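ligand=acetyl coenzyme *A
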Amino acid sequence: MKIPCYICGLGSYVPSHSVTNGDMEKLVQTSDEWIVSRTGIRERHFLAEGEQVSDAGAAAARAALEDARLSPDAVTHVFVATCTPEYLSPSTACVIAGKLGLPSSSGRGAAVMCLDFNAACTGFVYGLELARSVLQGSPEAVVLLIAAEALSRRMNFADRSTCVLFGDAAGAVALRSCPEGGLWEVRDVTCASDGSLCELIKIGGGTARSVAEGDVLGPDFFISMQGQAVFRHAVRSMTEESQHILERNGLGVDDVELFIPHQANLRIIQAVGERLGLEPAKVFVNLANYGNTSAATLPLAMCDARKEGVLRPGMKVLLTSFGGGMTWGSVLLT
Ligand code: ACO
């Protein structure tokens, strides 16, 4: 029997430190006009000095649990989608669980599974598939899926074509198999990748190269990207993956009540919307305020769309994303 998976709570966190395009003009040779016309981005937010990606993730997680009216004690699994973890080890999931007070002394002892995974900007989509699989085997589980990113910590301010694109944020959802209190059912998820394209987007700081004390950091420590190749792949993969998930669920594009794509670039979003034949009013966009926050864009957009009243419980929603790896995928919520 297929066990259902419901999103029963939603939360997000955006650091208060805002960096406008005007601020970027003071850091690199760029202009508000170039950034807005090429990307649609006007502002992004950076973690404050001393503020960590786990702080952002824990804040989003608390908001999602409050929305779900669940105590942290109820959580059995903490999954964190991130390509900017706080450490190589311990996992950011363990750090966040600690900040949430898990495992609690009054709860179920140490029976909380904590796991980080990296599907870059597709992390939230991959995470929903992970959550569905866990609930299939353990229907009583309460999964906290957090997407949290600190991209400002790996920005190369000598590379104006990438440093203007990204921001920091976190989003989270609580997932259960019981329909009571469910906002949306995660009806279907598709996940895809092509590792032969792994050179197109990279974030350094891993073990690819040994480091010794006093070494000067090179460009390989930061985000690097072949922008135009990524752009073409993003448009094609998000369009095809959206069509694929609709087809396999017997739905047409007119059945979609709201389309929330990965928020990387307004031109990519518009191209995908046009290729799918979606009315612009059904395409949700909020990247002007945040830039590309990688795995966090989808839950953050869901939160904003709900606040604006355009996303309501039970609506048929299509999510899609793409990112480094390359990875891509789509989600159907009902
Ligand atoms: N300000 C001013 N000029 C700039 C800037 C800037 N910030 N950046 C680049 N330029 C200049 C270039 O130097 C170039 O000048 P030239 O013609 O004199 O050589 C010119 O603008 C055009 O540069 P292109 O790179 O060709 O610009 P393009 O139109 O391709 O836009 C962009 C670049 C915005 C990066 C685009 O390629 C893009 O959005 N790609 C997709 C990126 C993306 O979505 N990444 C998300 C995935 S990230 C992840 O998964 C973690």
